[in-house]
Design goal:
Layout: H1 6-9, E1 11-15, H2 17-20, H3 31-35, H4 38-44, E2 48-51, E3 55-56, E4 68-72, H5 79-91, E5 95-100, H6 110-117, E6 129-130, E7 133-134, E8 141-142, E9 156-159, E10 164-167, H7 182-197, E11 203-206, H8 236-239, H9 245-255, E12 263-268, H10 274-281, E13 290-293, H11 295-298, H12 314-326, E14 336-337, H13 347-351, H14 359-371, E15 376-380, H15 402-414, H16 419-432, H17 471-476, H18 481-494, H19 496-499, E16 503-506, E17 514-521, E18 524-531, E19 537-540, E20 546-552, E21 563-565, E22 569-572, E23 577-582
Parallel strand pairs: 1-2, 1-15, 2-5, 5-11, 11-12, 12-13, 14-15
Antiparallel strand pairs: 3-4, 6-10, 7-8, 9-10, 16-17, 17-18, 18-23, 19-22, 20-21, 20-23
Helix pairs in contact: 14-18, 15-16
This protein binds 6-O-alpha-D-glucopyranosyl-D-fructose (ISL).
6-O-alpha-D-glucopyranosyl-D-fructose (ISL) is lined by residues 61, 64, 101, 150, 170, 207-208, 267, 269, 297, 306, 342-343, 403.
């Protein structure tokens, strides 16, 4: 059995600083606002607080474009405020982790300004610079390769002054660091890591952790053409999981992380092969504690554009969950359980039902689901009250995210502003857009949901649902989503061998309405039965012997005794989740 460690059993909670709580009435969340809610998090059962980027930044990509790792974005507060937050978490027995965004910096970072200043600057090779190519037919200058950036358009930006292109996998204001430079790596370890670890930070969520190794700059080549007639092509096979990736992470671990008691959770896109994932998360590999797999949040995304909504089936979701629950079994690796973050639509809308009659029930069913999974559990702010997506009638003007807006502009260009096509884009964004997760946290039913003061203008429109869905209301209701999450978190910790560390097994991967799985630890077993539909369903309890129903989102008191025999059929109400323990 895998050894027990704090970061395996801890419940993590992600805070998106812009939208969590405004402490000074300027309409933007901030660090003092977070400090004012630390007791709320403790009361929920949170052990690990993850704060998304709060570093100095021009905010082209909501702080994932960092201009100084050692300073705080001034509207959020100061380094002293961060120290106070770290201390406030520690005083309550909680840990705090930060985002480590070191695939790229902002183009306003001092390192990039120097690098850009001339071809002979000592930091020139801290970023990825390449000479242009020229189109053999027209003679026109073209980028060194055909790579497409995540936020639309080419992944190379021309720098007129020095006569070369620089690489940016994300926005042109986010130039990629060149990890081939040892001096650059050392600067990253010092500035982005040791600076904060020495202040007591307990680890990092590591942004795009598998894209650092792109090979020598001169060896970067064109991606295969998959979209005929278009210059920019998806290139992740060429830059994800590159040749020196594991060497770099081992070095980072050896020189920095292992000297502190830390955890790391890496973001691991484009890596469907479990054997490859184990190379990052196996304990013996000495690289990362765990990673976020993308399969679950990719469900329903189109093949050519991530925002092209595609119908999905429950069997697909079940297969994905089973795969990433089981891949660590019998290994020394570890995994995560999550279904939301700041880059995704809200889980109730995407995976369950946000219709008024089922919203709260299905949010609780998802809570039961998540709290029963093996791995470190991550909750995204607002998930604990069942926040839902942006209403589909919000116009594009309400959307703020660079990626979503880039997609909108691209389709506008391709279709010559066709109103029907653009209406479809807005509809897609209201399901899959990153902005769905970024609307302000709904604290109460007063103007602006208690996120900021009444006279202030929130930086982003508050979701219309706030009078119905908010923390204050749910704190008073005995059967609220929030109360259910608290109960589930407590239950998960009380049954940690089964629920956090247990082996996962499932029997009904084919059915499209229900999901039944078993967690086991030695002789102990839990059966979880979930109904993902609007109608009653019958399922068979696997195994034999007696099962005691411990939790259902339809009954409010824990341990309401109801016994069912293994092999018998039980009925699930619409969107009901049941958890049985066998003994
Ligand atoms: O959301 C995505 C996949 O579903 C990607 O578009 C996303 O950009 C990618 O997963 C990387 O995300 C991370 O790095 C980005 C930043 O914009 C995201 O917010 C961050 O989570 C660049 O730093």
């Amino acid at each position: 059995m895998t050894p027990k460690i704090w970061w395996k059993e801890g419940v993590a909670y992600q805070i998106y600083p812009a939208s969590f709580k405004d402490g000074n009435g300027d309409g933007l969340g901030d660090i003092p606002g977070i400090i004012s809610k630390v007791d709320y998090l403790k009361d929920l059962g949170v052990d690990i607080v993850w704060v998304s980027p709060m570093f100095e930044s021009p905010q082209i990509d909501m702080g994932y474009d960092i201009s100084n790792y050692e300073a705080v974005h001034a509207p959020y507060g100061t380094v002293e405020d961060m120290q106070e937050l770290i201390n406030a978490c520690h005083a309550r027995g909680m840990r705090l982790i930060l985002d480590l965004v070191v695939n790229h910096t902002s183009d306003q970072h001092a390192w990039f300004r120097e690098s850009r200043s001339s071809k002979t600057n000592p930091k020139r090779d801290w970023y990825i610079w390449r000479a242009p190519r020229y189109d053999p037919l027209t003679g026109a200058r073209i980028p060194p390769t055909n790579w497409r950036s995540y936020f639309s358009g080419p992944a190379w930006e021309w720098d007129e002054a020095s006569g070369e292109y620089f690489l940016h996998l994300f926005a042109k204001e986010q130039p990629d660091l060149n990890w081939e430079s040892a001096a650059c790596r050392q600067a990253i370890y010092d500035s982005a890591m040791r600076f904060w670890l020495d202040k007591g930070v307990d680890g990092f969520r590591v942004d795009t952790v598998n894209m650092y190794s792109k090979g020598p700059v001169a060896a970067i080549t064109d991606a295969p053409v998959v979209n005929a007639g278009v210059f920019e092509q998806p290139a992740w096979d060429l830059y994800a999981n590159g040749p020196r990736m594991h060497e770099f992470l081992r070095e980072m671990n050896d020189e920095v992380l292992r000297k502190y008691d830390t955890m790391t959770v890496g973001e691991l896109p484009h890596t469907p092969d479990p054997a490859k994932v184990l190379q990052y998360v196996g304990a013996a590999q000495k690289q990362l504690s765990m990673v976020f797999q993308f399969d679950i949040v990719n469900v329903g995304q189109g093949a050519s554009y991530r925002y092209e909504y595609a119908d999905w089936r429950l069997s697909e979701l079940k297969g994905i969950v089973a795969k990433w629950q089981q891949f660590i079994q019998g290994t020394d690796g570890w995994t995560t359980a999550f279904c939301e973050n700041h880059d995704q639509g809200r889980s109730v809308t995407r995976f369950a039902s946000d219709r008024p009659e089922y919203r709260a029930l299905s949010a609780k069913m998802l809570a039961l689901f998540m709290c029963s999974l093996t791995g470190t559990l991550f909750i995204y702010q607002g998930q604990e009250i069942g926040m839902v997506n942006i209403p589909s009638d919000w116009p594009i003007e309400e959307y703020k995210d660079i990626e979503g807006l880039g997609y909108y502009r691209e389709i506008a260009k391709q279709t010559n502003n066709d109103p029907q096509a653009l209406a479809q884009v807005v509809k897609n964004l209201s399901i899959l857009g990153r902005d769905n997760a970024r609307t302000p946290m709904q604290w109460d039913g007063t103007l602006h949901a208690g996120f900021t003061e009444a006279e202030a203008v929130p930086w982003m429109r508050v979701n219309d649902s706030y009078t119905d869905i908010n923390v204050a209301k749910q704190l008073t209701e005995p059967d609220s989503v929030l109360k259910f999450w608290k109960d589930m978190i407590r239950f998960r910790k009380a049954h940690s061998d089964l629920l956090i560390y247990g082996a996962f097994d499932t029997f009904d991967l084919q059915t499209e309405e229900t999901f039944v799985f078993v967690k086991s630890h030695g002789e102990e077993k839990a059966v979880v039965a979930l109904n993902f539909s609007d109608s009653k369903q019958e399922v068979e309890l696997p195994g034999s012997g007696e099962f005691l129903l411990q939790i259902s989102n339809y009954v409010h008191s824990e341990n309401e005794a109801k016994v069912a025999a293994g092999g018998s059929r039980v009925t699930l109400q619409p969107w009901e989740g049941q958890l049985y323990i066998h003994h």
